[in-house]
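User: Hi! I'm a student and our assignment asks us to look at how structure tokens line up with a sequence. Could you show me two examples?

Assistant: Happy to help. In each example below, the sequence comes first and the structure tokens follow. Example one:
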Amino acid sequence: MAPKIHRHELKLSHGPAWGGQRKTFLTSVAFSFVLLQLLFLANMSLLYGSQYRDAYRTHHMKVLAVDYDGGVVGESLLGAYRQLKGDTFPTLDIRPASEYPDYGTIKEAVCQGHFWAAVYSLSGASERLSAALQGGTAATSYNSSNAIRYVYNEARYPTTEAGYVTADLQQLIAASRTVYNQLNGTSAYGLVNQSDSAAIEAFLDPFTASSIDLKPTEQGTRVLYNTASVALSIVQQFFFIMAINGISNGLSLFSRLTVQTNGLIRLGFAATYTFIGSLCWTGYIWAYKEDWALTGGQFMLIWMLGWLFMHINFLILDTASVLIPMQFMPFFVLTWVILNITISLANFDQSPSFYKYGYALPAHNWYETFVTITSDGCYNRLYRNLPVLFAWFILGHLLVVPATVHRCRAANKQVEEEEKNKLERQRTHNSHREEKGADADGEGSNRHSADAESAETASTSDSDTLSARRTRSNSVAYGPSMPLAFAALSRRLTQNE
């Protein structure tokens, strides 16, 4: 039977059970409550702010427009843009055909990332349409999609390309047909060969558009590349750092081994763990790529890029775990994850200018390099991406060295304090035994009891102080860690020694 619980036991105690700590407890909980609310408020505001009213910044996205036709079809296309032009529509950068003498130069301009897309009327489109309206062979062979064409690179930002670029270009083509009917509908009707069904069809469907996707990226997992994959690759490093610290704590490695040995061990594990982690990371991208056309060489490049990105984050988190107090380390990890997700997710043309600080963060440069690899060299920003990534890589190595030195010093200081505390307790114990033997009468015994009690109180106070110092030293040397997960393993290894 379950034990009975008395009503007075359910009441919040105000008595000695709290040890005078009730106010401290409630204050600490309230402080943590407020800090966590502010932490998540700030991070989610940063994340949501990058997408806030992004549709009204669509006009920052440039689309190349060239009229090779020079007739009513090209005029209809440009006339439709004048109707649709606004904040929620991409800006058409209208250039003369002389700047782009052939269609290949337009594809190259989009591939290089100078424009989000390009739309152009094909040479002779109006003439072919006029001939088709008159019937005969020209009508039967007429292809309405051979009038306007647009080019885009879906691999750049797949959701942006689908939600804004291609959707708006299709809207532009539909509006062009309406403008064509307004400009040329009446005169075109007079040219139609009423006895030729192909000519009538050409009149009813004067032109549509064909498209060229430089790198089709239609797999469902494409939305995870610059979101969940970024977050998990960072968190993965933090968990491993906690594991290393937990095992090192159980074996007291930072106090038993030299700084050089500890540094080499951590750097070796960092390189190996991130190397294997990036292989697995690339593997699950590959396993779920569906029909995404990638080669073995691209697999290797993505693997090496992931290795660099993960290694950078390992070094950053390892250094931060020394510089930042252990109780605030989760705050830093969450903020670092959200910062990088926000920047890798954000398309700077549609985000507030504030977010352009992301050019300096690892995740943005990783993602742009990832796009360059997967789109067969298109959107090449390696001149900026690689220097930034390697700058983080070098900075991480420069910072992790003094961080490791600081860990080892903190661990050695902890050992020294424990030894000092042990000797002090031993001296106190021996002193009590000597005084106990010297005092024979009751008065001496009472005096001894009072002195012993005073000494014990002082010893307890000193022990508490040393315990607090030991906790701080331990948090610097080994925190953050997962001691519970690896305690059994550490004890087993210690016993084997």
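Example two works the same way, sequence first and then tokens:
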Amino acid sequence: QAEEVTFVLRILIPSAPSCIMRILVGLRIAASLLAGAALAKEDTLVGEQGQAVFGCACKGGKGTHGYCGYHFHMGSQESKPWCRTKYGCGKPGLQGSWMHCDERGVERRLAPDGKFYTSKDFKDFYNKEGKDKWVTAKPYTERRLARNNKAYNVFEFRDYYVDAMGEEGWITEWIKAKPEARQAQDGKWWTWEEFRDFYGEKEAWKHWDGSTSSRSEL
């Protein structure tokens, strides 16, 4: 890979200092080649003490891209969710180690059709408008009830369980957890689907927004 990088740079970077754009292109290609070399390496499964481990742990909220997600940006258009990992575990990368992770633990948000979708779903369906649609949907992030009866989004839910249950254990809890419920005008606690079924798709949004959530106690 090093010889390929050198060859590309010699072709694309002339001696004339004015060719800045060609230099930038060369650097981008070089970075891509280096990244490809890193991705070709086998996973390294190591823990905090350098010991062999069964699987890696995501960095969580303290690191950029520390939670499981699609993390779309110029350097990443992955079709599978991934996260940055602790202790150099997983696949090597220019910005740090990483691994693919369970898509069942990825954040979802309500779309205009009243159903929950991932950022990849938004991107695939809305194309160029996908990012803006995803950002707009942030107030309608999916939440589920933990054992303390609080409604957490998927990242908060992981933080609540992961120390005791690990990366696989918290996913199991998330899958079986009940969806967030909010207190309606009749004093009863309804899920989003129950609001939608009762009020209809158009009216459900404002009633959901105006209802009391258990998150108000967080």
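Here is something you could point out in your write-up. The chain has three domains: 1-40, 42-104, 105-217.
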